[in-house]
Amino acid sequence: MCSGNCAKCLGITLIPLAIICVLCNILLFFPGGEVVDKTEDITDEVFYLGGILGSGVLMIFPALVFLGLKNNDCCGCCGNESCGKRFAMFSSILFAAAGAVGAAYSVIISCVAINHGPKCFTEGNSTTTAYQFSDGNYLSNHSMWEVCTGPGDIVTWHLTLFCILLITGLVQIGLCAFQVINGLIGTICGDCCGCCAE
Fold this sequence. Notes:
Strand order of the largest sheet: 1-2
Structural class: mainly alpha
Number of helices: 4
Largest sheet: 2 strands, antiparallel
Helix content: 55-70%
Shape: elongated
Strand content: 5-15%
Radius of gyration: 22 Å
Order of helices and strands: HHHEEH
């Protein structure tokens, strides 16, 4: 497969992943699927926007660059028909690196959020949320989840969405790493389909 075609496939894959991350981060602003009165009731890590900025916006730019590589028509520089395509493949490495950094940011935020657990109401305090778990101890002990009485099924909501962000971010990092390798091959060898081929 040509390096340009491969990059296009990666771009097509990254766009829905970025949309999923943005949606998950937006849903996290509604703990337990409910609208809360105070922003203090929302888990702090949600405001770091790992899914919106890291795996979302920062991933859209590389995805669009990857999509455009196959149709890149920049041949003939310095008398060499393939040098334009080689430069485009080299630039894709930089965008892939930027995308990987954004996804890594989302992964780190997700790991921290999963470890801290959600803010939630308790039976003794139904007006203000607080962190009830520490050091991920609730992950292996589901009976602790009963401490949280709301909003909604907050623990499951929190874990599900942040786990989706975590897994999606790891997939994005893998795809960007693959494009770095693909970009290096395209830079060194050129696009196997040729540039300006008749």
